[in-house]
Automatic annotation (TrEMBL), chain A:
InterPro entries: AAA+_ATPase, ABC_transporter-like_ATP-bd, ABC_transporter-like_CS, P-loop_NTPase, Siderophore_ABC-ATPase
Record-given protein name: Iron ABC transporter ATP-binding protein
GO biological process terms held by the UniProt record: iron ion transport
ABC transporter domain location: 2-238
Membrane topology reported for the UniProt record: Peripheral membrane protein
SMART domains assigned to the protein according to its UniProt record, in alphabetical order: AAA
Compartment annotation: Cell membrane
GO molecular function, one term: ATP binding
A GO cellular-component term linked to this record: plasma membrane
Automatic annotation (TrEMBL), chain B:
Compartments where located: Cell membrane
Transmembrane spans: 9-33, 63-80, 92-111, 117-136, 148-171, 191-211, 236-263, 275-293, 300-322
Protein name: Iron ABC transporter permease
Topology of this chain in the membrane: Multi-pass membrane protein
Organism: Paenibacillus etheri
Superkingdom, natural source: Bacteria
SUPFAM superfamilies: ABC transporter involved in vitamin B12 uptake, BtuC (SSF81345)
Similarity comment text for this entry: Belongs to the binding-protein-dependent transport system permease family. FecCD subfamily.
A GO biological process held by the record: siderophore-iron import into cell
InterPro entries the record matches: ABC_BtuC-like (IPR037294), ABC_transptr_permease_BtuC (IPR000522)
Length: 259, 329
């Protein structure tokens, strides 16, 4: 469904991502984790074409990303950044309607079908009663849901989320990740997200990619990836990992920094 | 929904206000003409020869010119503000106006036999200024608003220098150029109007096609490109349009500041930031504001004819400071 094949990204002569490959199956949630500066956000930006990659290929739904137009990409894939800012007077429903524009020619107006999809996206994100509120007046979690609703209105096959919880407090983090899981389970939405929190990555992902200094350090199920060795190597921290037999989602307890 | 219908009403009311102001402005001047005579002359039911001459040859062209130019500059400012994602952007601050003015002045003073090329010179000058600003502000990741403003300051200084140099070198030909530099509509008749009108109409039509693009880049570069837009291409097209509108205005009547900055800002306070309303509102309000400035300039201190550029600077400067105090930016 989505394959990244040995891509490299350089930024001002410096190699940020080196010969990186991974692939995502339809309906999977994949998290990308790694320390600050490891290149995980850069990787996500490159595969969503926000920044260029220099070698390698990205295959989206059977087609090479570089052979698609920006609009064709936008109809199949959406990307949500850590923090977005809507104009102060833009309402939720207005924001979400912009998600329909990739499906429109430059002169076409939104029709009833588009508005139905917008309403569907608002319902999926539980924002119907907020639709006429200004996005700027919503709480952090609600406004992140509004941006996810806009992404949903694009009707993508795959959703990329760049640290969707970074600026939120824990209850809003939970709210956003539960929504992501809901979209995945109800609609089979394929999701690739960059996360910081190891427990969130473990709880919500089918597979985890670990990035270390621009290279793939590990790739596998949470059970395979979340080991004390990985955490020591990648994060320089000692940790205890608690495996729950029935769930295959280990819990990580961080102990201390390795000196 | 309530809000959007309110915005629509505000735009319509402003258009009506501008039309009423136009009729009043035609009546004002050294010879006062009552409204009934104005309407009679325009719609052909009255035919006092004196009124016909004053209205058709002097006042109506000047009133229309002020309104068209006001609309042009305001749209130009509104577009640049979208392009740069910064409410401080306008053709004056980014150097477009002074770039156009410097090029026009070269023709006016150094090569007066080529005056028919003044509109082209203005466009070229505006493009060069905008090009320099972009070249300086361009980063790998896109265009940063702060560096755009800073490079605008540099370009303005450079063009100011060129203008100063030209005025010293050709001081014998100066008086006409000074009127023009200050943004004066005095003695502008049907010729200037006919020169501007076709370009202005073309520019307005194009701007209405730009509304959706302007709205999308308002969401930020990453979101716009995620929605399948080529952000830099939109920026270039909208900038070209903004430079075009500003340049033809400069070519016709010279440098007028603050309209491009203050009018879109006022419009935004009245109808919000959706370009579907902001653009027509800027257009109507720009026409109204420059009409008031020009009419005030020629009647308040009669028989002196104060260039509207000067009046706009005197009113616009303090208003700008007031906005800054209110932390509107």
């Amino acid at each position: 469904m989505f394959t990244v094949d040995s891509i490299s990204i350089r930024y001002e002569q410096k190699s940020v991502i080196n010969n990186f490959s991974f692939s995502v199956k339809k309906g999977e949630i994949v998290s990308i984790i790694g320390p600050n500066g490891s290149g995980k956000s850069t990787l996500l930006k490159a595969v969503s074409r926000l920044i260029p990659y220099h070698t390698g290929t990205v295959i989206l739904d059977g087609t090479d990303l570089k052979s698609m137009s920006a609009k064709q990409v936008a109809r199949k894939m959406c990307m949500l950044s850590q923090k977005n800012q809507a104009p102060s007077d833009m309402t939720v429903i207005d924001l979400v309607s912009y998600g329909r524009y990739p499906h429109k020619k430059w002169f076409e107006r939104l029709n009833q079908e588009d508005m139905d999809i917008v309403h569907w996206a608002l319902e999926k994100t539980h924002l119907i009663e907020y639709k006429d509120r200004a996005v700027a007046s919503l709480s952090g979690g609600e406004s992140q849901r509004a941006w996810i609703a806009m992404a949903l209105a694009q009707r993508p096959l795959i959703m990329l989320l760049d640290e969707p919880t970074t600026y939120l407090d824990i209850s809003h983090q939970h709210e956003v990740l539960e929504l992501v899981r809901e979209l995945n389970q109800d609609m089979g939405m394929t999701i690739v997200m960059v996360l910081h929190d190891l427990n969130q990555a473990s709880t919500y992902s089918d597979s985890i990619v670990v990035v270390q200094a621009g290279e793939k350090a590990m790739y596998g199920t949470p059970n395979e990836v979340m080991t004390t060795d990985m955490i020591r190597d990648v994060y320089r921290m000692d940790a205890e990992v608690q495996y729950v037999q029935t769930e295959k989602k280990p819990r990580i307890h961080l102990l201390s920094t390795v000196r | 929904m309530i809000k959007t219908s309110r915005s629509r009403i505000v735009v319509i009311v402003t258009v009506i206000l501008a039309l009423v102001a136009a009729i009043i402005a035609i009546g004002l001047g050294s010879v006062f003409i009552p409204i009934s005579d104005i309407l009679g002359t325009i719609f052909g039911s009255s035919s006092k020869a004196v009124n016909t001459t004053i209205i058709w040859d002097i006042r109506l062209p000047r009133v229309l010119l002020a309104m068209i130019i006001g609309a042009n500059i305001a749209i130009s400012g509104a577009l640049l503000q979208a392009v740069m994602g910064n409410p401080l952007a306008d053709p004056g601050l980014t150097g477009v106006t002074s770039g156009a003015a410097a090029c026009v002045l070269v023709i006016m003073l150094a090569a007066p036999q080529y005056t028919q090329f003044i509109p082209i010179a203005a466009f070229v000058g505006g493009l060069i200024a905008a090009g320099i600003v972009y070249a300086l502000a361009w980063r790998r990741t896109g265009i940063s608003p702060v560096t755009i403003i800073l490079s605008g300051v540099a370009v303005n200084a450079l063009c100011g220098g060129v203008i100063g140099l030209l005025t010293i070198m050709y001081s014998d030909r100066l008086p006409a150029a000074v009127q023009w530099l200050n943004g004066s509509l005095a003695a502008k008749g049907n010729n200037a109007l006919m020169m501007v009108l076709p370009y202005a109409i073309a520019g307005w039509i194009l701007s209405f096609f730009a509304i959706r693009k302007a709205n999308i880049i308002r969401l930020g570069d990453q979101v716009a490109s995620n929605l399948g837009e080529n952000v830099n291409q939109i920026r270039i097209l909208l900038s070209l349009l903004a430079v075009f509108l500003a340049a033809i205005s400069v070519a016709a009547i010279g440098m007028i500041g603050f309209v491009g900055l203050v009018v879109p800002h006022m419009a935004r306070m009245l109808v919000g930031s959706d370009y579907k309303y902001l653009l027509p509102m800027s257009m109507a309000l720009g026409a109204l504001v420059l009409l008031i400035a020009d009419t005030g300039g020629r009647t308040l201190f009669a028989p002196l004819d104060i260039p509207s550029g000067i009046l706009m600077a005197v009113i616009g400067g303090p208003y700008f400071l007031y906005l800054m105090r209110k932390k509107a930016f």
